[in-house]
Structure formats: structure tokens, C-alpha cells
Amino acid sequence: MNVSQTIKGVVLAGVTLASGVSYGTDGPGTGSKTPKPGIWRGEFVISETKIPFNFEYNAKDKDHPILTLLNGTRRDDFKVTSLGPDSIFVKMNTYDAALVAKVESDGRLSGEYRSLVPGFRGNSLPFVAEHGKNYRFVEKGKELPTKHNLTGKWDLKIYSKAKLPDNVALLKQEGNKLTGVVMSTVGDSRELEGVVEGDEFVLSHFSGPNPRVYRGKINEDGSVTGEISSGIYNSTKFDGTKNTAAELPDPYKLTYLKEGYKKLDFTLPDLDGKSVSLSDDKYKGKVVIVEIIGTWCPNCTDQTSFLAPWFKANKNRGVEAIAIGFEQKDDLAYAKYTLGTLKKKYGIEYDILFGGIADKKVASDKLPALNQMMAFPTTILIDRKGEVRQIHTGYTGEVTGDYFKNYVAKWNKDLDELIAEPVPTASVAGKPNKQSEE
Predict the structure, then answer these.
(1) Nearest to 109 by CA among 80, 71, 77
(2) Which of 39, 233, 315, 356 is the most exposed place for a label (fewest CB within 10 A)?
(3) What is the DSSP letter of 329?
(4) Closest residue by Cα to residue 295 from 324, 333, 253, 319
(5) What is the rounded distance in angstroms from the CA atom of residue 280 to the CA atom of residue 231?
(6) How confident is the model at residue 164, as a pLDDT?
(7) Predicted structure pTM score
(8) In this predicted model, what pLDDT tens digit does every residue of 274-285 receive, in sequence order?
(9) In what residue span(s) does the Thioredoxin domain sit (predicted)?
(10) Would you call 102 helix, strand, or coil by DSSP?
């Protein structure tokens, strides 16, 4: 999912900074309109598809209001900036996009979701929002009855112009309420929330990157068919069957080194333009974690939110980390802004390098030892001898439950074992590492 599917620009048509408006400690001056605090229900319109989302507007600190997107148990906070007496700008944190909206005379919000990537031309995602509505699709108590229960693990087959890799869905239904997550070889959908009515179901999600909706029909045999809509004119078909044995391909076997390679080799600029390589003294004799990411990628930011605190707690154990960012514009100054925002938000204490434009082929060219660049993120573990020991494709976050717990357990076990290995005698800071030059 990519915010570059949306329109360029910052300010909604007709919403400009008003001149002569006074601002004090209580916000805009007399006559200004701000969103009411509390719960809201918004609705994107994509082609003829409506995608609802929920958020909370917290105005306890009028100078620094917060908009919180709600998805099941997930909460994502975003700072709100005033654009004038009746308009707000909500930057989507590390995603270079924003919600820009006007407070209408009746208190509703109307606006657009916009890409902020310089020079990008595309389509906008208009939305409206109403205060005081806490449901997503159907008001509680007004749902149509259903005889179905979708709780369980589902094997989903995804179709576009051609069949795509299968997905696995983990769903939980309580009455009419439906929540869950869809996992694929590149990551997870984040937390989905929706409803089951009659023989139909619908789920949606919006937490900063593009909104999406899953709509489906429950067939007489218990199988499901449906469609996923995301961004502009982007929809895929799916069908699914409940299957307790459904599993994705092993994420540790999808990306690997080409025959004849044992090591990874690259030289890329950091955010200040300085060239960094794995052969630098800093990394010799260390266990090195390389994560290949993009700030536009939700699974990448989820992975970063895991790695950044882990590294901070373990950096004195003989381990280093490098993030290689592939961004939506092939420009180091732009990458310094986007990746710098990521660094600040998550408190990253390891090196961040710029790989180039966000494209799997470009990433494959920059890292020629890999068989392919299949997904952002991809995480590579390198031992003290500089040899690649493990490559993990994609990332599944906390919402995946046992999958995430198992990932963390294996991560800690594998890193402990690599860190416990002896430092090669040739690896002395400031001196050449003979093994790394072989």
C-alpha cells in the first residue's frame, strides 16, 4: 500500500490560511470553528465505494490537539495543525500524506486525504465525518441478524489480473461484530474492524496509509467470496475457505543469497550523504541487522517500532543495525526529511541509509547478492564474520497474536546465539578484516 496513490498538494481547495485572524492560547480568534472533541465517524469515497473509519478528536490541549485513528484495539495518534479559522491539517506521521479538512457550518468535517510527495500527480480521496457516531458500518442494535460465525483461520485466494499469492485471515466474530487481520507474504493488513449481516460481511481499516475495505458474501457451503478495495481504482477479488491448517510460505525461505554468495555488499549514503558500507570498521566483528524499509510502508514502520527499542536495549552486546530506506522520491534531500521523521518518531539509534526510489527492482539492483527483493520490509541477520545467516521477508505485527509471539521468541533466540559466537581474531577495530575482504 502506497500513499502515492493519492493526489499531490497540501491545502484543500478553498481552505487557505486566513489573513488577519488572531490566535491566542485558546486557539483561533473569535468566530473560529474547530472540531468538537470526542468520537467521530468518517467516510472515504473511492469511486463508488465508501470506506468508513473512526477517530477521536482530543482537544484537552487546545494548542496541541490530537486526532487518534481507531481500528479495533489499535490506536494511532496524529498532531493537528490549524490552517485557519475553520480548517485543520493532520500530517500522517511518517507517511508523507495528510488529512486536510474544513469544519462546516453544521459541525461536520469535509476534506481530502492527500499525498505530500513533491511533484506527484494523482487522485484525491475525499471524505466527510460526523461527530458523536461511534459505529463503523451499522449502528449497534440495528444490525440484520445472521446465522454465520466467521471466527477462525481462513485460506484466502487473491485474484487481480492474475492470481496473487494466497493470504491467511484470522477472524473473530462476537455477535455481529467482526474483527481480524489478513496476513500475506509481505506482511499484515493491520487490525480490521467490521460487521456480519445476513450472508454478507465487511471490514475496513485506516491508520495513516491508504484506507481499504474488504466486502464479501458467505456462500451456502460456508466459503466466502468478495473484493478488496484500496486507494484509487485498486481492487482485487478473493475467495476463501475456513482452514485450521492454512499457512503462508516460510518467510525465512522466500528471500535468499544467490549461489556463490555468503555476504552482503553495498555502499550507500547516510542521511548526511556520507558513504556507509558493511566493510566499515564500525561493523567488523559485530552482529549486524540490516532492515530494508520505506517510510510509506505500514509493515515497515511496525517493524521499526519493534527494532528501534530492541536495539536500544541490546546495542552494547556487540550488535549493530542498519536501515536502508527506499523512498517515494529518488532524492537524498527528500529522503533526509522522510527518514529523518522516522528516526525522530521511533528514537532510532542505528544508521539509516538511502537506497533510492521505492521500487523492488531498484532494491534488487542495489543488493545484487539477493535472489530478489520480494517485500518491504526484509530483515537480514549477519554474523560476526560478515556472513549472512538469516533473511526474513515481510513482517507480521502484534495483531497476528501467536505469529508475532513466535517471531519475537525466534528473533531473541537467534540473536542471542549470534551474539554469543566468538569475535574473529582478524576483526579488530581500525584494522582490516581479512575475512571480509575474501
Answers:
(1) 80
(2) 233
(3) S
(4) 324
(5) 42
(6) 75
(7) 0.88
(8) 999 999 999 999
(9) 257-413
(10) strand
